[in-house]
Amino acid sequence: xxxxxxxxxxxxxxxxxxxxxxxxxxxxxxxxxxxxxxxxxxxxxxxxxxxxxxxxxxxxxxxxxxxxxxxxxxxxxxxxxxxxxxxxxxxxxxxxxxxxxxxxxxxxxxxxxxxxxxxxxxxxxxxxxxxxxxxxxxxxxxxxxxxxxxxxxxxxxxxxxxxxxxxxxxxxxxxxxxxxxxxxxxxxxxxxxxxxxxxxxxxxxxxx
Length: 208
Known about the structure:
This protein is of the alpha+beta class.
């Protein structure tokens, strides 16, 4: 069958028998996944038969790609890109910033998922630690709140630096004023001293 005849959509209750059989074949916890049916996107053929499915669990701004399964893994290379496009739409609708997975297929590395660094791991929901496998992540979009927060912090930093500069300038002006007053006082003292010395010299002159 041509890949153009495959498409992806959200799983419905009508898909449950096919999905349950698929999950059991994969030895997934079918009972648990049945209760989370709405997490799944399915790939179907022209007749509407389910050929594969991938779950996408949402937690805040994070999405977890999980429980990937196919009736025939020979079709996986054709079906994964189709489901991935659908997952990106779901992620956009939910405002997802990062998509995570522990799925081992090389496909996920090929489309840009990488091993998370320390900063990314601070965003990882700890409730997903029970899933087995190596963790991969991809950033789908910028986090508006993080950008706004960074901008706010930068603006606060600029205001702080501006206030510090103004305080330093004010202190410098204060020192200049103090120095000017001190110089004036010194000049007055010198003049008074000179006047006093002149008077003393004159008094001594007339006493002779």
